[in-house]
Design goal:
Layout (H helix, E strand, L loop, with lengths): L2 E5 L3 E2 L5 E8 L8 E8 L6 E7 L4 E3 L7 E6 L4 E6 L8 E9 L7 E2 L3 E5 L2
Parallel strand pairs: 2-11
Antiparallel strand pairs: 1-3, 3-8, 4-5, 4-9, 5-6, 7-8, 9-10, 9-11
Length: 120
């Protein structure tokens, strides 16, 4: 059973960097051909895809967030992380990590999500 768990601070101040980590169990993040992504949902809005890191370490980002987003992985810990810089209150959302088979359009396993609020 593949499980993903997000962790990180629930409150971030404006202009700071939001950093979240996703810990994966039941599967290796280096297994071909999967991607590991971040998706968020602001209050009252739909989901927004932020970016993905693939099994071989390639990264792809949403054009609207690319200038502020970085996704990295630690294969020794089977984790991948999201860093979103220069946050504003508009970055307040529930943040999810998830797995996607690279030949599919759908994420098949999701974390439970973690609420992040940007506020001073």
């Amino acid at each position: 059973q593949v499980q993903l768990q997000e962790s990180g601070p629930g409150l971030v101040k404006p202009s700071q960097t939001l950093s979240l980590t996703c810990t994966v169990s039941g599967a290796s993040i280096t297994t071909s051909f999967y991607g590991w992504g971040w998706i968020r949902q602001p209050p009252g809005k739909g989901t927004e895809w932020m970016g993905v890191i693939t099994y071989d370490g390639s990264t792809y980002y949403s054009p609207s967030l690319e200038s502020r987003t970085s996704i990295s992985s630690d294969t020794s810990k089977n984790q991948f992380s999201l860093h979103l810089s220069a946050v504003t209150p508009e970055d307040t959302a529930v943040y999810y990590c998830a797995r996607i088979p690279l030949l599919s359009a759908w994420y098949d396993y999701w974390g439970q999500g973690t609420q992040v609020t940007v506020s001073s």
